[in-house]
Design goal:
By secondary structure, the protein is mainly alpha-helical. It contains 7 helices and no strands. 69% of the residues lie in helices and 0% in strands. Helix 1 packs antiparallel against helix 6. The termini are far apart.
């Protein structure tokens, strides 16, 4: 039988808690902390979308940014979308494990899928 009070269990619990903090919380937080200071350069408010893309292309600071590949594929006003998409993917894979019954998993997954589809369509 498995003894959940054993020392190895405590070590594994700490490892799991740190892993949860690093990936689902830490990675999106790091991306946001890198994108947030650049947000005015990513989406110039006084410009149309075409002008904003031209401004973004010419901006040397954005070209040299470590996170350039994260925002380049999105329209200027959606510079934050990669972080949203990370949470969508985590919700549909990892967060489902919170539910013990398949019915709860299905309801949660359908809710997340419908909500994110509506947001993506807007």
């Amino acid at each position: 039988s498995i003894d959940c009070n054993a020392d190895i269990y405590a070590v594994q619990l700490i490892y799991a808690a740190v892993s949860v903090l690093i990936f689902p919380v830490g990675v999106p937080a790091v991306f946001m902390s890198m994108l947030w200071p650049l947000r005015m350069r990513l989406d110039p408010k006084a410009a149309s979308e075409t002008e904003a893309l031209a401004i973004r292309t010419k901006d040397e600071r954005l070209a040299d940014a470590v996170v350039a590949q994260v925002f380049r594929k999105y329209r200027p006003r959606y510079w934050w979308y990669e972080i949203f998409d990370m949470y969508r993917r985590l919700s549909l894979t990892c967060f489902l494990l919170i539910f013990h019954k398949p019915a709860g998993m299905i309801v949660f997954a359908l809710g997340v899928a419908m909500l994110t589809t509506v947001i993506q369509r807007e």
